[in-house]
Design goal:
Elements lengths: L17 H4 L3 E2 L2 E4 L11 E3 L1 E6 L2 E6 L7 E4 L10 E7 L5 E9 L5 E8 L4 E6 L14 E7 L10 E9 L15 E3 L6 E5 L4 E8 L3 E11 L3 E3 L6 E9 L2 E9 L1
Antiparallel strand pairs: 1-16, 2-12, 3-6, 4-5, 5-12, 6-11, 7-10, 7-12, 8-9, 8-11, 13-14, 14-17, 15-16, 15-18, 18-19
Protein name: T9SS type A sorting domain-containing protein
Keywords: Signal
Length: about 250
Amino acid sequence: MKKKYSIKTHLTFIFVLSLLLGFEVSVNAQTFNFDTDTDTEGWTSSNGTLAVAGGIMTLTPNVGTTSPGAKYPNALNPANGQYLHVLCTTPGPEIDRRIRFRVDSDGTWTTQNIIISANPQTYNFDLSSNPGWTGTSISDITIRFQSNNSTTASVENVSIDAIIFDNNPTLNIVSLERFDFSFFPNPTQDKINLKANEPINQVQVYTLLGKEVLNLDLGDISNPNVDISSLSVGIYNMKVSIGDSVGVVKVVKK
């Protein structure tokens, strides 16, 4: 029986065709897609509370604050992600808002002044100019959503579909649901069948630590099969590209 998934997406890297070259490489990415209910994937709140349901992490500001945020205390590798992408939205009317990023130990903010749309959109940051985002291991970062109007007593809830660090400057994260995408069986021992109403261009598979183990350039195939029989038993992220849209789902090799 087919199982259809609405994909919260999120992940793009600089890739190498590892299978063709005969070895694995470390990929340039760290992705958070909140696809397990109640699991914030290591993120904690700042001036607010976090809750995860339905593949979305909701940041609810504390009463009276103008700068709620999400903090990540665990290690990230700046060398593996020059760009930050945040797929998010706010309910109701569009809100005048700054999204700000910092490495807490450095304190330098990388800021984007935006209007957060009532529809999910991806907001991209180039972190190469942030002096704290360097080296091979950084702990404690903050993404803050701050009102541009200093007289505003509070800001609205923010719904975050994905947070991604990678080396793609203009990643376009959207849900692949509009392509009627599905994949099955899952779990599987060998092959995964993919289906969409538009051609699937590329499929990449990664370990949960971000190492690429499979990269297939499919050209334009609407219903390809992906053979993962050579992979070790475990859970993997599978990135699917349809046109300029990108989606990631978890697959289980048994």
